């Protein structure tokens, strides 16, 4: 990071100016990766970033130019990341995300990466909040998010978990690293072991860290085994085995139906469910459960769906037991 002072009328560095982040009355020029220039206000940037504030907190030398000018700083950051970072500083409301206004991964990545690097606490916290919403710890929230919205952060299905895992590793964020690796476990083996293409028109590929690839490949069997155990557990009991006074509107139909499934269950049925679900041990099997216990009433089917949700919540709480996040 280098810093010089120049007069306003000499602001031509041979790089294109960013059209959305060039303030004519700005007094701070940032050059991103020797590719794009940004002209902003020093007072605005330093108010949000302690790193930039500290940079200008030292007394200027006696021979420093006294005439109005611009401080020029060269930064190694990509122009895309720096744009999101500066845009969030100037227009914070745009970056208060919600289910109705979901963020894109490039925006979250930039706020996470540069928020950490330049100690912009508000921006970093918003990025962390996005990751918490994308990977909720409560299994009911997990199910609702995936059922109603698919995901919180907008990104390419194959690329997104890889890039979240890579950035979480870089910034030492084990909570999100672990959740992203769970999603990576569900990727096709070729994508997991090699890379995912970033968009049809791009030649860039997202590659998962080699240690994380090994962790995912090793975790797949454990996730499949716990999925099989949780499915098998569904066939061990009926609602009456758990509750002395379980309310069922049609016991004459449901008791025989649930007992029939319990008594005539074969391992082949569990194997078929596991084969369909693969490593998706945290995903709900509501449709499959409803089909299996189809002769029972909605309340009894809900009993099995709730029971399976409880086993998935336990798995969510103990996910690190099955996916060993490699040391940083």
From TrEMBL:
SUPFAM superfamilies: POZ domain. SMART domains: BTB. Residues 26-93 form the BTB domain. This is BTB domain-containing protein. It comes from Phanerochaete carnosa (strain HHB-10118-sp) (White-rot fungus). The lineage of its organism: Eukaryota, Fungi, Dikarya, Basidiomycota, Agaricomycotina.
